[in-house]
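Sample 1 of the test manifest.
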Amino acid sequence: MRALAYGMSSPHVASRSPLRPWDVAHASWTLPLVAAGIAASLASGARPLGVEAQRSVAFALGPALLLVTLHARTAAYLHDEGLATTLPLPVPPRRRFAIAWRSHLVGLLWQAVCGAVAFAIAGSDAPARMVLVADWLALVLTCALVEPAGAAASALLGRRVPEDSVAGQLQRAAGGGWTLPEAVVHLWAPAMALATAAAVAMPLQLTIDRWADGRAPGRAHLVACTLALSIAAVLRVAAVPAYCRGMFDAVPWLRQAMRTLAGPPVPSPAPRWLAAIRDPGLRLTILQHQRLTPVPTLRLVALLGTAVILTVRTAAPGIAELGILVGLVALWLVPADALRRHGQAQRRLLSPLPLTDHRARAWACLLAPVVLAALPVAWRVVASRVVGGEA
Amino acid sequence: MSAPLQLRGVTKRYGARVILGGVELDVGDGELVVLRGPNGTGKSTLLGCICGQVVPDDGHIAIDGHDLRADPMGARRGLRALAQEVEVPPGITGREWLAFCADVFGATAPPPDDPQLGEVLDQLATTYSVGLRRRLAFLGLCVGNPRLFVLDEPFAGVDVDGRAAMRTRLAAALSSGAGVIVAAHDHELGELDAMSPRRVDVRSLGRDQS
């Protein structure tokens, strides 16, 4: 590396490269928590049905968990803002792929930890827990190998191809006409990669289950495992040249599709209840929060509704249920980070205006649902401990 | 040596709207071309096509003889693009950005000839003013052997000293044979007059009125 100008060591540059993804997707940190909490709850619910049924539930939940955060952890390949901005630079696609893969693995590792904790909580005893976690980790391993192929397919098919070619017909047929043909692949390729990873993981999971049940894996199982891992490895290796071939074209097409077709430029009207807020500064901030938060009402209802359920139901909330609540609190609060990041610029903009400082009130509005949700649940947990202790 | 820029039949549509209709344009060695035209006439789209950030529906773009689509890395080695809104990566100081540019373009980072920029070089680039960010980005582009500068309103928000420093570097690049294509509004043209630019109205470059 020649970045030794100004006496700087190259590892320093490598660790803070401008090519790192610019947009840290908060969803990649919060969603795994929420999804793992729900998975733990559902898998725990299957305990009375026996080990086999619980494994089946966990088998279905694994890909669902990974699907929730699929976009967040693979965004660095083609969707990241920094990638589009640095596109005119002569940075080899292979280097961009390597950086995106590192970001992908960090997201996947976090997802793996959350999922492993969830399945460990769900298992009825130590052996059952180990099997559920091992099955899950087998799926994570195949995802690490196969998911980059989804991004590579998106890069390869996200280019302009002749209309009469098979790829061109596929672009047109799969899009339904409502987005650019070049962008259609982004709708299905990542999920297809995840489905492939789940299929490839099956022989591994089956072999683990047999071994856990005290049955030695047969030759057919070992051959199937080897074949599955070979397919995953081949897809991983093939992903790099495919990505390199398509990346420079696919990123601009994707940007164009997102800019021109991803939602209307005219936002939905402001909620009527906002008019009841007299302070214009506070009204502006809450409107911004509404616009910057996807499905804000659903988040609020999910948070408060879950708190009500956890408070009134007979059983006291366990770790999994509290995990869900913490995740829902995070889902409610995290979008406000965008406002915080732009807070300084906004304060500069608003400071000459005849406004009172509304920041404390804005935070109070945002935190009120958290307090409303947390207090009764905390009371329920404490009460159950006290009653349990007395009993 | 090939011409810094050759555009042949470059067409771009957004839906039914034709923004660029078969643009033909050459930028020669040491030539400065100023693109003019009112807002929304396709200046930024054309520059986006040249920078590889917009893919044209038709036509060919060659930078220093390298086709932008067939040989994207070869074309980008000589390309130096300054966007209208300069984005700097978060968490990176100005000095680190210059080191990164030196790494990417395979050269040594130039020492900042701009005292004001030199003072803040160890601060996070995201904390810079708009003008300083632009000066930093431009300085980063001056490393290596540029063949084509693509500049979208390069002087917007830059103060007198900064504009002078940028003009000096631009003149040096022109004299070394690089081509420059600039999108600028009338009030910015005075900055470039001393470099004898060829003025081109983007509407005259081929624009289907359908």
